[in-house]
Design goal:
248 residues, alpha/beta, seven-stranded mixed sheet, 9 helices
């Protein structure tokens, strides 16, 4: 006889418990949890912002990694160069003074002050440059008209101006001075007026000259003979007497 299959009855569905209405206390607790969960995301955003922020401007005493620092600039006569190349070409370091705009009264005063003090400022081996966001044409006119003995650097994109911390936000150049030695150590990094920038370099040169004088070894004077050493020996005295007798 054929086997008759019996169908199993489906299990009865258990009704879901009714959702409880949140009390005021539980609602406050839920909101607090959501707030706490949201904080790490905000912190992450802040850290991302910090990570993408530009590096801090160099200060006196810092040693700058010159490779790629400040990007590429152009001299007033059209020569492409970098801060690294300028430092390597110098004897003891580089001084860069920044000015907002060529041929304006304040910038002319500043450039002429550096011109008039050029010889004493560079006698120790420092190379001086002016730096602005002006075009090569504007800076060439400025240099020629004022008879400036140093080169002017053109930085229209303000990459070097920004790197040395003298870029005005959102646009423009802060008047100031920046100096570093052959090792890339920052010697000066400060804003200032026309006279203040020149005075800062004068002070730097004076200090370096003082340090150089301290390092020079003192000349050794020949030792003076003592009275006993100065007295002639018996042989020397005899020879002196013979010489005196011959003269008589």
């Amino acid at each position: 006889m054929p086997v008759e299959l019996r169908k199993r009855k489906a299990p009865a569905l258990v009704p879901e418990p009714p959702t409880k209405k949140q009390t005021k206390v539980s609602q406050v607790a839920t909101k607090a949890k959501e707030t706490v969960k949201g904080k790490p995301a905000k912190a992450a955003k802040a850290s991302d912002a910090n990570g993408s922020s530009k590096p801090a401007k160099p200060v006196v005493g810092d040693v700058v990694a010159l490779d790629g620092f400040g990007g590429e600039v152009e001299t007033h006569d059209g020569k492409k160069t970098t801060l690294k190349a300028l430092v390597e070409e110098s004897k003891s370091g580089v001084v860069i003074f920044t000015y907002p705009r060529a041929s304006t009264p304040g910038c002319t005063n500043q450039a002429c002050l550096f011109r008039d003090s050029y010889e004493p400022l560079t006698k120790g081996g420092l190379a001086i440059y002016g730096l602005s966001s002006d075009s090569p044409k504007a800076n060439t006119t400025f240099k020629t008209k004022q008879n400036l003995p140093y080169s002017l650097l053109c930085d229209p994109s303000a990459t070097l101006i920004d790197a040395i911390g003298l870029k005005k936000s959102p646009k423009g150049t802060i008047r100031g001075v920046f100096a570093l030695n052959k090792d890339g150590k920052v010697l000066l990094a400060e804003p200032g007026g026309p006279a203040a920038t020149v005075d800062a370099v004068k002070k730097l040169v004076a200090e370096s000259e003082g340090d150089a004088a301290k390092e020079e070894p003192a000349e050794e004077k020949p030792a003076e003979k003592s009275e006993e050493e100065a007295k002639p020996t018996n042989g020397e005295a005899t020879e002196d007497k013979k010489a005196d007798g011959a003269n008589e």
